[in-house]
Write a structure and sequence with these properties.
seven-stranded mixed β-sheet, alpha/beta, 21 strands, 29% helix
Length: 564
Protein backbone atom coordinates (compact mmCIF):
# COMPACT_ATOMS: atom_id res chain seq x y z
CA UNK A 1 0.00 0.00 0.00
CA UNK A 2 1.13 3.59 -0.17
CA UNK A 3 3.29 4.94 2.56
CA UNK A 4 1.51 5.61 5.80
CA UNK A 5 4.10 8.24 6.56
CA UNK A 6 4.87 11.66 5.07
CA UNK A 7 6.60 11.33 1.72
CA UNK A 8 9.97 12.75 0.73
CA UNK A 9 10.15 15.91 -1.34
CA UNK A 10 11.31 15.26 -4.90
CA UNK A 11 15.00 16.03 -5.47
CA UNK A 12 14.31 18.83 -7.95
CA UNK A 13 11.32 20.30 -6.16
CA UNK A 14 12.00 23.98 -5.36
CA UNK A 15 10.07 24.18 -2.10
CA UNK A 16 12.31 23.25 0.82
CA UNK A 17 15.09 20.76 1.31
CA UNK A 18 14.45 17.11 0.56
CA UNK A 19 14.76 14.39 3.12
CA UNK A 20 18.16 12.87 2.38
CA UNK A 21 19.77 9.55 3.16
CA UNK A 22 22.76 10.95 5.05
CA UNK A 23 21.43 10.12 8.48
CA UNK A 24 20.89 9.30 11.21
CA UNK A 25 23.96 7.23 12.16
CA UNK A 26 26.46 9.52 10.41
CA UNK A 27 24.69 12.76 9.44
CA UNK A 28 27.23 14.07 6.96
CA UNK A 29 25.92 16.10 4.01
CA UNK A 30 27.57 14.13 1.22
CA UNK A 31 25.61 15.99 -1.46
CA UNK A 32 26.91 19.37 -0.26
CA UNK A 33 30.43 17.96 0.00
CA UNK A 34 30.29 16.87 -3.66
CA UNK A 35 28.72 20.08 -4.91
CA UNK A 36 31.13 22.46 -3.14
CA UNK A 37 33.23 24.52 -5.59
CA UNK A 38 36.41 23.70 -3.63
CA UNK A 39 36.09 20.05 -4.62
CA UNK A 40 37.10 17.10 -2.45
CA UNK A 41 40.61 18.38 -1.70
CA UNK A 42 44.08 17.45 -2.92
CA UNK A 43 47.07 15.19 -2.39
CA UNK A 44 50.79 16.17 -2.47
CA UNK A 45 52.19 16.53 -6.00
CA UNK A 46 54.81 13.85 -5.36
CA UNK A 47 51.96 11.35 -4.93
CA UNK A 48 50.33 12.18 -8.24
CA UNK A 49 50.11 9.17 -10.51
CA UNK A 50 50.34 6.71 -7.59
CA UNK A 51 48.44 3.52 -8.27
CA UNK A 52 45.59 2.47 -5.98
CA UNK A 53 43.82 -0.89 -6.35
CA UNK A 54 40.04 -0.63 -6.49
CA UNK A 55 38.58 -4.13 -6.12
CA UNK A 56 35.09 -4.39 -7.55
CA UNK A 57 33.60 -2.57 -10.52
CA UNK A 58 30.13 -1.95 -9.13
CA UNK A 59 28.83 1.55 -8.49
CA UNK A 60 30.89 2.01 -5.32
CA UNK A 61 34.09 0.91 -7.05
CA UNK A 62 33.54 3.10 -10.09
CA UNK A 63 32.69 6.18 -8.00
CA UNK A 64 35.77 5.52 -5.85
CA UNK A 65 37.99 5.20 -8.91
CA UNK A 66 36.45 8.24 -10.60
CA UNK A 67 37.08 10.52 -7.60
CA UNK A 68 40.59 9.14 -6.97
CA UNK A 69 41.43 9.88 -10.61
CA UNK A 70 40.22 13.46 -10.16
CA UNK A 71 42.64 13.82 -7.22
CA UNK A 72 45.53 12.82 -9.50
CA UNK A 73 45.89 9.19 -8.41
CA UNK A 74 45.83 6.24 -10.81
CA UNK A 75 43.05 3.83 -9.84
CA UNK A 76 43.46 0.25 -11.06
CA UNK A 77 40.03 -1.35 -11.12
CA UNK A 78 39.62 -5.11 -10.77
CA UNK A 79 36.31 -6.67 -11.82
CA UNK A 80 35.55 -10.38 -12.11
CA UNK A 81 32.43 -10.06 -14.31
CA UNK A 82 31.12 -6.80 -15.75
CA UNK A 83 31.10 -3.18 -14.72
CA UNK A 84 27.97 -2.36 -12.75
CA UNK A 85 27.71 -5.02 -10.04
CA UNK A 86 24.10 -5.06 -8.86
CA UNK A 87 23.31 -2.26 -11.29
CA UNK A 88 22.68 -5.07 -13.75
CA UNK A 89 20.53 -4.23 -16.76
CA UNK A 90 19.45 -6.93 -19.22
CA UNK A 91 18.18 -5.99 -22.68
CA UNK A 92 15.73 -8.01 -24.76
CA UNK A 93 16.67 -8.78 -28.38
CA UNK A 94 14.54 -6.88 -30.86
CA UNK A 95 13.12 -4.49 -28.27
CA UNK A 96 13.79 -0.73 -27.99
CA UNK A 97 16.66 0.36 -25.76
CA UNK A 98 14.38 1.50 -22.95
CA UNK A 99 12.70 -1.91 -22.65
CA UNK A 100 14.95 -3.55 -20.09
CA UNK A 101 14.97 -5.82 -17.08
CA UNK A 102 16.65 -4.40 -13.98
CA UNK A 103 17.97 -7.50 -12.24
CA UNK A 104 19.34 -5.56 -9.28
CA UNK A 105 18.69 -1.93 -8.38
CA UNK A 106 15.63 -0.68 -10.24
CA UNK A 107 14.12 2.16 -8.20
CA UNK A 108 15.87 5.14 -6.66
CA UNK A 109 14.37 7.56 -4.12
CA UNK A 110 14.89 11.31 -4.55
CA UNK A 111 16.25 11.09 -1.00
CA UNK A 112 19.39 9.64 -2.65
CA UNK A 113 20.73 13.13 -3.19
CA UNK A 114 24.37 12.01 -3.46
CA UNK A 115 23.48 9.36 -6.03
CA UNK A 116 21.50 11.89 -8.04
CA UNK A 117 24.59 14.11 -8.18
CA UNK A 118 26.17 11.47 -10.42
CA UNK A 119 22.94 10.64 -12.28
CA UNK A 120 22.65 14.31 -13.22
CA UNK A 121 26.39 14.62 -13.92
CA UNK A 122 26.29 11.97 -16.66
CA UNK A 123 22.99 13.21 -18.11
CA UNK A 124 20.73 10.28 -17.36
CA UNK A 125 16.96 10.67 -17.52
CA UNK A 126 14.71 9.32 -14.78
CA UNK A 127 11.01 8.60 -14.70
CA UNK A 128 8.58 7.72 -11.88
CA UNK A 129 8.65 4.05 -10.89
CA UNK A 130 5.24 2.32 -10.72
CA UNK A 131 5.18 1.25 -7.08
CA UNK A 132 1.86 0.17 -5.55
CA UNK A 133 -0.62 3.04 -5.48
CA UNK A 134 2.03 5.55 -6.58
CA UNK A 135 0.79 8.47 -8.71
CA UNK A 136 2.57 6.94 -11.73
CA UNK A 137 0.79 3.61 -11.24
CA UNK A 138 -2.54 3.44 -13.14
CA UNK A 139 -4.02 0.90 -10.73
CA UNK A 140 -3.09 -1.56 -8.01
CA UNK A 141 -4.61 -4.91 -7.03
CA UNK A 142 -4.09 -6.21 -3.49
CA UNK A 143 -4.84 -9.94 -3.49
CA UNK A 144 -4.88 -11.57 -0.05
CA UNK A 145 -6.37 -14.87 1.04
CA UNK A 146 -8.06 -15.36 -2.31
CA UNK A 147 -9.78 -11.96 -2.36
CA UNK A 148 -8.72 -9.16 -4.70
CA UNK A 149 -9.15 -5.44 -4.09
CA UNK A 150 -8.79 -3.03 -7.02
CA UNK A 151 -7.63 0.52 -6.29
CA UNK A 152 -6.43 3.62 -8.07
CA UNK A 153 -5.75 5.40 -4.77
CA UNK A 154 -5.47 4.24 -1.17
CA UNK A 155 -9.00 5.54 -0.54
CA UNK A 156 -10.36 2.80 -2.83
CA UNK A 157 -9.17 0.02 -0.51
CA UNK A 158 -11.31 -1.43 2.29
CA UNK A 159 -11.23 0.39 5.61
CA UNK A 160 -9.01 -2.20 7.26
CA UNK A 161 -6.06 -1.14 5.10
CA UNK A 162 -6.41 2.48 6.19
CA UNK A 163 -6.49 1.28 9.79
CA UNK A 164 -3.24 -0.63 9.33
CA UNK A 165 -1.65 2.45 7.76
CA UNK A 166 -2.75 4.53 10.74
CA UNK A 167 -1.35 1.91 13.13
CA UNK A 168 2.05 2.12 11.43
CA UNK A 169 2.01 5.91 11.59
CA UNK A 170 1.12 5.80 15.29
CA UNK A 171 3.81 3.23 16.03
CA UNK A 172 6.52 5.30 14.36
CA UNK A 173 5.44 8.45 16.15
CA UNK A 174 4.98 6.97 19.60
CA UNK A 175 7.98 4.63 19.64
CA UNK A 176 10.52 6.20 17.27
CA UNK A 177 10.01 10.01 17.33
CA UNK A 178 9.30 9.91 13.60
CA UNK A 179 8.25 13.51 12.90
CA UNK A 180 11.01 14.96 15.06
CA UNK A 181 13.64 12.89 13.26
CA UNK A 182 12.35 13.68 9.76
CA UNK A 183 12.28 17.39 10.61
CA UNK A 184 15.85 17.27 11.94
CA UNK A 185 17.09 15.44 8.82
CA UNK A 186 15.34 17.86 6.48
CA UNK A 187 16.81 20.79 8.44
CA UNK A 188 20.22 19.05 8.58
CA UNK A 189 20.18 19.64 12.30
CA UNK A 190 23.03 17.32 13.23
CA UNK A 191 22.80 17.93 16.96
CA UNK A 192 19.13 16.94 17.11
CA UNK A 193 19.60 13.96 14.78
CA UNK A 194 22.37 12.59 16.98
CA UNK A 195 20.44 13.14 20.20
CA UNK A 196 17.33 11.38 18.92
CA UNK A 197 19.19 8.49 17.32
CA UNK A 198 21.72 7.97 20.09
CA UNK A 199 18.81 7.55 22.50
CA UNK A 200 17.12 4.98 20.25
CA UNK A 201 20.08 2.76 19.31
CA UNK A 202 20.79 1.25 22.77
CA UNK A 203 17.08 0.70 23.33
CA UNK A 204 16.28 -0.87 19.96
CA UNK A 205 19.47 -2.65 18.86
CA UNK A 206 18.17 -5.96 20.23
CA UNK A 207 14.70 -5.57 18.72
CA UNK A 208 13.36 -7.21 15.57
CA UNK A 209 11.04 -5.40 13.18
CA UNK A 210 8.25 -7.78 14.19
CA UNK A 211 8.93 -7.32 17.90
CA UNK A 212 8.77 -3.56 17.42
CA UNK A 213 5.29 -3.93 15.94
CA UNK A 214 4.18 -6.31 18.70
CA UNK A 215 5.30 -3.86 21.39
CA UNK A 216 3.01 -1.18 19.96
CA UNK A 217 -0.59 -1.09 21.23
CA UNK A 218 -1.55 0.12 17.75
CA UNK A 219 -0.58 -3.32 16.41
CA UNK A 220 -2.19 -5.46 19.12
CA UNK A 221 -4.15 -7.29 16.42
CA UNK A 222 -2.40 -10.20 14.70
CA UNK A 223 -4.62 -9.61 11.66
CA UNK A 224 -3.27 -6.06 11.34
CA UNK A 225 0.33 -7.24 11.69
CA UNK A 226 -0.29 -9.90 9.05
CA UNK A 227 -1.84 -7.41 6.60
CA UNK A 228 0.98 -4.96 7.23
CA UNK A 229 3.56 -7.66 6.53
CA UNK A 230 1.87 -8.69 3.30
CA UNK A 231 1.06 -5.22 1.98
CA UNK A 232 3.43 -2.96 3.90
CA UNK A 233 4.17 0.60 2.87
CA UNK A 234 5.82 2.29 -0.09
CA UNK A 235 7.15 -0.64 -2.13
CA UNK A 236 4.86 -3.34 -0.79
CA UNK A 237 5.03 -6.14 1.76
CA UNK A 238 7.78 -6.13 4.37
CA UNK A 239 7.19 -9.36 6.26
CA UNK A 240 10.41 -10.80 4.85
CA UNK A 241 12.17 -8.11 6.91
CA UNK A 242 10.35 -9.01 10.12
CA UNK A 243 13.37 -10.93 11.59
CA UNK A 244 15.76 -8.04 10.88
CA UNK A 245 16.74 -5.24 13.23
CA UNK A 246 14.15 -2.47 13.53
CA UNK A 247 17.04 0.00 13.25
CA UNK A 248 17.40 -1.02 9.58
CA UNK A 249 13.74 -0.20 8.94
CA UNK A 250 13.84 3.11 10.78
CA UNK A 251 16.76 4.27 8.63
CA UNK A 252 14.62 3.66 5.55
CA UNK A 253 11.49 5.46 6.74
CA UNK A 254 13.28 8.36 8.45
CA UNK A 255 15.11 9.25 5.25
CA UNK A 256 12.17 8.87 2.88
CA UNK A 257 14.01 6.07 1.08
CA UNK A 258 10.83 4.12 0.40
CA UNK A 259 8.89 6.89 -1.34
CA UNK A 260 8.57 8.55 -4.75
CA UNK A 261 10.99 6.22 -6.49
CA UNK A 262 12.47 6.96 -9.91
CA UNK A 263 13.77 4.54 -12.51
CA UNK A 264 16.62 5.29 -14.91
CA UNK A 265 15.48 5.36 -18.51
CA UNK A 266 17.42 2.73 -20.45
CA UNK A 267 18.72 1.00 -17.34
CA UNK A 268 20.73 1.70 -14.20
CA UNK A 269 23.94 0.14 -15.52
CA UNK A 270 24.39 3.19 -17.70
CA UNK A 271 25.50 5.15 -14.62
CA UNK A 272 28.74 3.25 -13.86
CA UNK A 273 29.39 2.77 -17.59
CA UNK A 274 29.14 6.51 -18.27
CA UNK A 275 31.37 7.32 -15.29
CA UNK A 276 33.90 4.80 -16.63
CA UNK A 277 34.07 6.66 -19.96
CA UNK A 278 33.65 10.20 -18.64
CA UNK A 279 36.49 12.73 -18.71
CA UNK A 280 35.96 15.06 -15.72
CA UNK A 281 36.15 18.83 -16.18
CA UNK A 282 38.55 19.26 -13.26
CA UNK A 283 41.50 16.90 -13.01
CA UNK A 284 44.69 17.07 -11.00
CA UNK A 285 47.83 15.75 -12.74
CA UNK A 286 46.14 14.01 -15.68
CA UNK A 287 45.77 15.71 -19.08
CA UNK A 288 42.35 16.89 -20.22
CA UNK A 289 40.31 14.07 -21.70
CA UNK A 290 41.58 11.42 -19.28
CA UNK A 291 38.97 8.87 -18.22
CA UNK A 292 38.98 5.67 -16.21
CA UNK A 293 38.69 3.81 -19.49
CA UNK A 294 41.78 5.51 -20.91
CA UNK A 295 43.81 4.64 -17.80
CA UNK A 296 43.14 0.91 -18.30
CA UNK A 297 44.66 -1.23 -21.04
CA UNK A 298 42.09 -1.88 -23.74
CA UNK A 299 39.59 0.26 -21.84
CA UNK A 300 38.75 -2.69 -19.57
CA UNK A 301 39.24 -3.36 -15.85
CA UNK A 302 41.80 -5.90 -14.69
CA UNK A 303 40.43 -9.44 -14.07
CA UNK A 304 38.93 -10.46 -10.75
CA UNK A 305 41.07 -10.75 -7.62
CA UNK A 306 41.91 -14.17 -6.19
CA UNK A 307 44.41 -13.22 -3.47
CA UNK A 308 45.14 -10.24 -1.20
CA UNK A 309 48.06 -10.05 1.20
CA UNK A 310 50.29 -7.57 3.00
CA UNK A 311 53.87 -7.06 1.87
CA UNK A 312 56.63 -4.93 3.35
CA UNK A 313 56.88 -2.18 4.21
CA UNK A 314 53.16 -1.20 4.21
CA UNK A 315 51.87 -2.42 0.87
CA UNK A 316 49.01 -4.55 -0.40
CA UNK A 317 49.76 -7.18 -3.03
CA UNK A 318 46.99 -8.26 -5.39
CA UNK A 319 46.86 -11.44 -7.47
CA UNK A 320 44.24 -11.57 -10.19
CA UNK A 321 42.62 -14.42 -12.12
CA UNK A 322 45.16 -14.18 -14.91
CA UNK A 323 47.97 -14.84 -12.43
CA UNK A 324 49.23 -11.24 -12.61
CA UNK A 325 50.67 -9.99 -9.30
CA UNK A 326 50.88 -6.30 -8.53
CA UNK A 327 51.70 -4.38 -5.37
CA UNK A 328 50.01 -1.15 -4.29
CA UNK A 329 50.54 1.33 -1.45
CA UNK A 330 46.75 1.38 -0.88
CA UNK A 331 43.64 -0.55 -1.91
CA UNK A 332 39.89 -0.08 -1.67
CA UNK A 333 37.71 -3.20 -1.46
CA UNK A 334 34.19 -2.49 -2.74
CA UNK A 335 32.83 -5.99 -3.50
CA UNK A 336 30.50 -7.81 -1.11
CA UNK A 337 32.44 -8.53 2.03
CA UNK A 338 31.75 -12.30 2.17
CA UNK A 339 34.08 -12.71 -0.82
CA UNK A 340 36.93 -11.98 1.59
CA UNK A 341 35.96 -15.14 3.46
CA UNK A 342 35.52 -17.50 0.54
CA UNK A 343 36.42 -16.48 -3.02
CA UNK A 344 39.56 -14.45 -2.24
CA UNK A 345 42.52 -15.89 -0.36
CA UNK A 346 43.25 -13.24 2.26
CA UNK A 347 46.02 -12.46 4.67
CA UNK A 348 44.50 -12.06 8.16
CA UNK A 349 46.78 -9.05 8.59
CA UNK A 350 44.49 -7.07 6.27
CA UNK A 351 42.13 -6.17 9.12
CA UNK A 352 41.94 -6.26 12.92
CA UNK A 353 40.28 -9.39 14.28
CA UNK A 354 37.17 -7.46 15.36
CA UNK A 355 36.67 -6.33 11.77
CA UNK A 356 37.03 -9.89 10.51
CA UNK A 357 34.33 -10.89 13.01
CA UNK A 358 32.08 -8.13 11.71
CA UNK A 359 32.62 -9.29 8.11
CA UNK A 360 31.84 -12.87 9.06
CA UNK A 361 28.67 -11.86 10.92
CA UNK A 362 27.29 -9.71 8.09
CA UNK A 363 23.79 -10.94 7.27
CA UNK A 364 22.76 -10.91 3.61
CA UNK A 365 19.18 -11.04 2.33
CA UNK A 366 18.22 -13.31 -0.54
CA UNK A 367 16.35 -11.80 -3.49
CA UNK A 368 14.99 -13.02 -6.82
CA UNK A 369 13.29 -11.52 -9.87
CA UNK A 370 11.75 -12.79 -13.09
CA UNK A 371 11.00 -10.60 -16.12
CA UNK A 372 9.31 -11.22 -19.46
CA UNK A 373 9.06 -8.89 -22.48
CA UNK A 374 5.56 -8.39 -23.89
CA UNK A 375 4.25 -6.96 -27.16
CA UNK A 376 2.65 -3.90 -25.57
CA UNK A 377 1.31 -2.62 -22.22
CA UNK A 378 -1.94 -4.58 -22.62
CA UNK A 379 -2.73 -4.06 -18.96
CA UNK A 380 -3.96 -0.56 -19.80
CA UNK A 381 -6.81 -1.96 -21.93
CA UNK A 382 -10.13 -1.35 -20.16
CA UNK A 383 -12.11 -4.42 -19.21
CA UNK A 384 -15.32 -4.27 -21.30
CA UNK A 385 -17.46 -5.34 -18.35
CA UNK A 386 -15.97 -3.49 -15.37
CA UNK A 387 -14.15 -0.60 -17.08
CA UNK A 388 -11.14 -1.38 -14.89
CA UNK A 389 -7.60 -1.88 -16.19
CA UNK A 390 -7.17 -5.38 -17.58
CA UNK A 391 -4.28 -5.96 -15.17
CA UNK A 392 -2.69 -3.94 -12.38
CA UNK A 393 0.43 -3.65 -10.31
CA UNK A 394 -0.18 -6.58 -7.99
CA UNK A 395 0.60 -7.29 -4.34
CA UNK A 396 -0.33 -10.79 -3.25
CA UNK A 397 0.31 -13.45 -0.64
CA UNK A 398 0.71 -15.95 -3.48
CA UNK A 399 4.16 -17.02 -4.69
CA UNK A 400 4.96 -13.98 -6.91
CA UNK A 401 4.36 -11.51 -4.01
CA UNK A 402 4.93 -8.43 -6.20
CA UNK A 403 4.23 -8.04 -9.95
CA UNK A 404 5.28 -4.78 -11.63
CA UNK A 405 4.07 -3.54 -15.01
CA UNK A 406 6.73 -1.48 -16.78
CA UNK A 407 5.77 0.51 -19.85
CA UNK A 408 3.06 2.94 -20.96
CA UNK A 409 3.58 3.46 -24.73
CA UNK A 410 0.63 1.67 -26.37
CA UNK A 411 2.59 1.12 -29.59
CA UNK A 412 5.81 -0.24 -28.07
CA UNK A 413 6.94 -3.43 -26.33
CA UNK A 414 6.92 -3.41 -22.53
CA UNK A 415 8.14 -5.52 -19.62
CA UNK A 416 6.48 -7.35 -16.76
CA UNK A 417 8.41 -8.10 -13.60
CA UNK A 418 6.40 -11.22 -12.85
CA UNK A 419 7.85 -11.56 -9.37
CA UNK A 420 10.15 -9.71 -6.99
CA UNK A 421 10.76 -11.54 -3.73
CA UNK A 422 13.12 -11.45 -0.76
CA UNK A 423 14.43 -13.82 1.94
CA UNK A 424 12.35 -17.00 2.43
CA UNK A 425 10.11 -16.05 -0.49
CA UNK A 426 13.19 -15.93 -2.71
CA UNK A 427 14.44 -19.30 -1.47
CA UNK A 428 11.17 -20.89 -2.59
CA UNK A 429 12.15 -20.13 -6.19
CA UNK A 430 15.78 -21.21 -5.92
CA UNK A 431 15.40 -24.88 -7.03
CA UNK A 432 13.24 -23.94 -10.05
CA UNK A 433 14.46 -23.24 -13.58
CA UNK A 434 13.42 -19.98 -15.20
CA UNK A 435 10.75 -21.82 -17.23
CA UNK A 436 9.35 -23.45 -14.07
CA UNK A 437 9.32 -20.10 -12.31
CA UNK A 438 7.34 -18.51 -15.11
CA UNK A 439 4.78 -21.33 -15.08
CA UNK A 440 4.12 -20.94 -11.35
CA UNK A 441 3.83 -17.17 -11.71
CA UNK A 442 1.46 -17.33 -14.66
CA UNK A 443 -0.74 -19.78 -12.78
CA UNK A 444 -0.91 -17.41 -9.80
CA UNK A 445 -1.79 -14.49 -12.07
CA UNK A 446 -4.55 -16.57 -13.74
CA UNK A 447 -6.12 -17.02 -10.30
CA UNK A 448 -6.09 -13.24 -9.77
CA UNK A 449 -7.00 -12.27 -13.35
CA UNK A 450 -8.99 -15.25 -14.70
CA UNK A 451 -9.80 -13.60 -18.03
CA UNK A 452 -6.27 -12.44 -18.85
CA UNK A 453 -3.90 -14.53 -21.00
CA UNK A 454 -0.48 -13.08 -20.20
CA UNK A 455 1.30 -15.81 -22.14
CA UNK A 456 -0.04 -14.75 -25.54
CA UNK A 457 1.59 -11.33 -25.12
CA UNK A 458 5.10 -12.65 -24.31
CA UNK A 459 7.53 -11.97 -27.18
CA UNK A 460 10.87 -13.21 -25.83
CA UNK A 461 12.64 -15.44 -23.38
CA UNK A 462 12.21 -14.72 -19.66
CA UNK A 463 15.21 -13.68 -17.57
CA UNK A 464 15.73 -14.36 -13.89
CA UNK A 465 18.20 -13.90 -11.07
CA UNK A 466 18.56 -15.30 -7.56
CA UNK A 467 21.26 -13.18 -5.98
CA UNK A 468 21.99 -15.76 -3.28
CA UNK A 469 23.09 -18.13 -6.06
CA UNK A 470 25.33 -15.58 -7.79
CA UNK A 471 28.89 -16.73 -6.96
CA UNK A 472 30.36 -13.23 -6.75
CA UNK A 473 27.57 -11.88 -4.54
CA UNK A 474 26.05 -14.74 -2.47
CA UNK A 475 23.17 -12.47 -1.51
CA UNK A 476 21.36 -9.33 -2.58
CA UNK A 477 22.20 -6.89 0.20
CA UNK A 478 23.13 -6.65 3.84
CA UNK A 479 20.35 -6.54 6.44
CA UNK A 480 21.46 -6.41 10.05
CA UNK A 481 19.93 -8.76 12.58
CA UNK A 482 19.24 -7.65 16.16
CA UNK A 483 22.53 -7.12 17.97
CA UNK A 484 24.49 -6.41 14.81
CA UNK A 485 24.84 -2.66 15.29
CA UNK A 486 28.33 -3.03 16.77
CA UNK A 487 29.50 -4.97 13.71
CA UNK A 488 28.12 -2.37 11.31
CA UNK A 489 29.72 0.46 13.27
CA UNK A 490 33.14 -1.20 12.89
CA UNK A 491 32.76 -1.69 9.14
CA UNK A 492 31.33 1.74 8.37
CA UNK A 493 33.94 3.64 10.39
CA UNK A 494 36.87 1.62 9.04
CA UNK A 495 37.72 4.46 6.64
CA UNK A 496 38.77 6.68 9.57
CA UNK A 497 42.01 4.77 10.01
CA UNK A 498 43.66 7.12 12.49
CA UNK A 499 41.97 4.86 15.07
CA UNK A 500 43.74 1.75 13.77
CA UNK A 501 47.23 0.47 14.47
CA UNK A 502 49.56 1.50 11.60
CA UNK A 503 49.95 -2.12 10.48
CA UNK A 504 46.24 -2.29 9.63
CA UNK A 505 46.10 0.88 7.54
CA UNK A 506 46.00 1.27 3.79
CA UNK A 507 43.15 -1.11 2.91
CA UNK A 508 39.75 0.56 2.86
CA UNK A 509 36.23 -0.90 2.76
CA UNK A 510 33.40 0.54 0.69
CA UNK A 511 30.12 -0.65 -0.81
CA UNK A 512 26.50 -0.53 0.23
CA UNK A 513 26.93 -3.48 2.63
CA UNK A 514 29.43 -1.37 4.58
CA UNK A 515 26.95 1.52 4.69
CA UNK A 516 24.06 2.06 7.05
CA UNK A 517 21.63 1.92 4.11
CA UNK A 518 22.42 -1.41 2.44
CA UNK A 519 20.34 -2.25 -0.61
CA UNK A 520 20.31 1.39 -1.69
CA UNK A 521 22.75 2.77 -4.26
CA UNK A 522 23.12 5.86 -2.10
CA UNK A 523 24.98 3.78 0.49
CA UNK A 524 27.40 2.57 -2.19
CA UNK A 525 28.16 6.16 -3.18
CA UNK A 526 28.53 7.48 0.36
CA UNK A 527 30.98 4.78 1.42
CA UNK A 528 32.93 5.35 -1.80
CA UNK A 529 33.39 8.98 -0.78
CA UNK A 530 34.44 7.88 2.71
CA UNK A 531 37.11 5.64 1.17
CA UNK A 532 38.30 8.43 -1.13
CA UNK A 533 38.76 10.67 1.91
CA UNK A 534 40.64 7.84 3.66
CA UNK A 535 43.01 7.27 0.72
CA UNK A 536 43.57 11.00 0.40
CA UNK A 537 44.55 11.25 4.07
CA UNK A 538 46.67 8.07 3.79
CA UNK A 539 48.78 9.77 1.12
CA UNK A 540 49.21 12.97 3.13
CA UNK A 541 46.46 14.92 1.39
CA UNK A 542 43.58 16.85 2.85
CA UNK A 543 40.20 18.32 2.11
CA UNK A 544 39.94 22.05 1.46
CA UNK A 545 39.31 23.84 4.80
CA UNK A 546 36.19 25.36 3.25
CA UNK A 547 34.82 21.89 2.48
CA UNK A 548 35.73 19.43 5.23
CA UNK A 549 35.31 15.76 4.40
CA UNK A 550 33.59 12.97 6.33
CA UNK A 551 36.73 12.10 8.28
CA UNK A 552 37.40 15.72 9.19
CA UNK A 553 34.08 15.88 11.01
CA UNK A 554 34.28 12.33 12.31
CA UNK A 555 34.66 13.13 15.99
CA UNK A 556 31.54 15.30 15.94
CA UNK A 557 29.21 13.00 14.03
CA UNK A 558 30.61 9.48 14.46
CA UNK A 559 28.08 6.70 15.10
CA UNK A 560 27.47 5.97 18.75
CA UNK A 561 29.68 3.17 20.10
CA UNK A 562 27.78 0.64 22.20
CA UNK A 563 29.60 -1.06 25.08
CA UNK A 564 30.64 -4.69 24.72
Amino acid sequence: MTSAVPTAIHHDEPAGRPITMFGPDFPFAYDEYLAHPAGLGSIPADRHGTEVAVIGGGLSGIVTAYELMKLGLRPVVYEIAEIGGRLRTVRFPGCPGDVVAEMGAMRFPPASTTLFHYIDKVGLETTPFPNPLAPATPSTVVDLKGRSHYARTAADLPEVFGGVATAWERTLEEHARFTAMQTAIRDRDTKTIKKLWNDLVPRLDNQTFYGFLCDSPAFSSFRDREIFGQVGFGTGGWDTDFPNSILEILRVVYTGADDEHRSIVGGSRQLPLRLWERAPERLAHWPAGTSLSSLHEGGRPRPGVVRLHRTAPNNVTVTDESGHIHTFPAAVFTAQSWLLLSKIACDEALFPIDHWTAIERTHYMESSKVFVPVDRPFWLDPDPVTGRDTMSMTLTDRMPRGTYLLGTDPDSPAVICLSYTWADDSLKWLPLSVAERVEVMLQSLREIYPGVDVRRHIIGDPVTVSWEAEPHFMGAFKANLPGHYRYQERLFTHFAQHRLEPRFRGVFLAGDDVSWTAGWAEGAVQTALNAVWGVQRHFGGAADPANPGPGDLFDDIAPIVLPD
